[in-house]
Amino acid sequence: MKASVFVGTSLDGFIARSDGALDFLPPGGGEPHGYVEFMATVDALVIGRHTYETVLAFDTWPYGEKPVFVLSSRPLAPAPAGAIVEHLSGLPADILSQLAHRGIQHVYVDGGITIQSFLQAGLIQRLVVTRVPVLIGTGIPLFGAITHDIALKHIATRHYASGLVQSEYEVAV
Prior knowledge:
The protein is an alpha/beta fold. It has 4 helices and 10 strands. Helix content is 18%, strand content 32%.
């Protein structure tokens, strides 16, 4: 099972404002920067409840027909028509094991707490972080406190006309 992260942050490392707002990100994701190509490689998404609730407010469901597994210990708001959403809870390793038994080979992990817990558990293999040229000062950090170093191998850094800078890493084993 492969687990990857593809995420946008402010230059100061926040994935959302403190209230969860994403208004500092470029409208519509900005210029093409590999998201569509990345999504074509994943079988399903694993996201946290806060991310799910944020995405529910979007004009359109951004994940198409990809199955979305939402991690929460609480009931979820109803999914939009046509969305494939399932509620799961448990430890990250157990979640990936359940999904592997269903034949899922590559998951996209999203949401601050979810990314952090999967990284801490050693379950993320690839990180693609796109930095937006804006400082927001405070918000929800991409990376929280960690109990041990997580070594990364730099794969590539790309820059775009709008000022987006994207770095790709593999988690070193």
